[in-house]
Specification:
about 350 residues; alpha/beta; four-stranded mixed β-sheet; 10 helices; globular; binds zinc ion
């Protein structure tokens, strides 16, 4: 996450709705990628989910016929707001969802709702298992379903322990499911021999192995012994699609985490820790893709900065009596999977509108 500033110079955060220094209402403009002051005649209005329910701080153009912001327009189903508890859980869910959308837009991946674009659009169903017991968090044909109860910390922690996970967050769910959506949008229609598709198989394995059987085996037997050398989480070992989803979620987590640290001035150059030097092959793309040593080095430098900063964050977390903030280890094989995720992100980036650079 980048650092935001108010027109008055005060620092604002991604979730800010009000500037405490100049006492003005503020909100995030996803088009401009900035926090703006909300002023009469200023050309922007608050999303109705913000003005009516206080669950959104995004803005849209005052002249727009739409009432909801870009992120809220992607909702197909929202929870039943008869219960106050649902409103609280929904607010947390929307916050996590906006953070996912922010990072995807920052990466240059365009997003439209399924209502706007039935073929490649994305929509969200946010539903509680209390009102619909068959609901599970997942992705199907451009619709991400999130079980609202996952926003309840106790519920989520119980699930985490039962599933033997070392980390389970709402934002992690959104990031994970976005990987399934992007796979379908960008990779599923490619031919079997397309280099991007072959690269996927080289890193993650054959995705045509039976998914239901693979997940059944995973939930019965757990991950294979020694999974830590090949996968970022035990769940990633269940099936190539899940390995991809866990890897992509992790790629977004590092992207956001590192951007946050560095934009707020936590720089690796200031750390007393030596940089962990990964072997050069950790930055390699699959052999089917063009070898690009410069890009590989840039990727490795990025990953090494995160490994250093996250070990600092873990120590801080221990200092205040909490367990590690970032309970992950990145072996070479996982680094190579992250490298491919990074490559995909660059391929999927939409070209920015051409800017004319004046000749000197
Ligand atoms: Zn201000
Ligand atoms: Zn909104
Ligand atoms: Zn999944």
């Amino acid at each position: 996450m980048q650092r935001f500033t108010c027109d008055c110079g005060n620092i604002l955060f991604f979730g800010s709705t009000h500037c405490l220094k100049c006492d003005r209402d503020v909100g995030y403009d996803p088009e401009a990628g900035k926090m703006l002051r909300l002023e009469p005649g200023g050309g922007m209005k608050r999303c109705e989910n913000g003005s009516e329910h206080a669950v959104c701080n995004w803005l849209l153009s005052a002249g727009s016929p739409e009432k909801l912001c870009l992120a809220c327009r992607m909702n197909r189903t929202i929870p039943d707001l008869k219960w106050g508890r649902n409103l609280m859980l929904w607010g947390r869910t929307e916050m996590a969802k906006r953070r996912l959308i922010y990072t995807l837009l920052q990466l240059g991946i365009t997003l439209q709702s399924k209502a706007m674009n039935p073929k490649t659009g994305l929509s969200f169903d946010i539903v509680s298992t209390l009102s619909n017991p068959t609901v599970t968090t997942g992705h199907l044909n451009g619709v991400i379903t999130v079980n609202l109860e996952e926003a309840d910390d106790t519920y989520r922690q119980i699930n985490r322990q039962q599933l033997g996970e070392n980390s389970r967050t709402l934002l992690g769910h959104f990031r994970h499911e976005s990987a399934h959506y992007l796979w379908q949008r960008f990779l599923s229609d490619l031919t079997w021999e397309d280099p991007l598709r072959m690269a996927f198989r080289e890193r993650f394995g054959d995705e045509w192995q039976d998914y239901a059987i693979a997940l059944g085996n995973h939930y019965q037997q757990g991950p294979p012994a020694g999974w830590e050398t090949d996968y970022i989480t035990g769940y990633a070992a269940s099936h190539p699609w899940e390995d991809w989803a866990e890897t992509w979620a992790h790629y977004l987590q590092i992207t956001d985490g590192l951007e946050t640290c560095e934009s707020l001035g936590i720089q690796v150059q200031h750390m007393a820790l030596p940089l962990v030097i990964l072997p050069v092959e950790a930055g390699f793309l699959p052999t089917i893709l063009k070898h690009d040593p410069v890009a590989n080095d840039a990727f490795l430098a990025w990953l090494q900065r995160w490994i250093c900063l996250s070990s600092v964050l873990n120590e801080v977390s221990n200092s205040i009596g909490e367990s590690e903030l970032y309970p992950f280890v990145i072996p070479v094989k996982v680094a190579q999977k992250l490298r491919l995720a990074h490559h995909y992100a660059q391929v999927w980036r939409q070209p920015k509108k051409a800017v004319k650079v004046p000749l000197k």
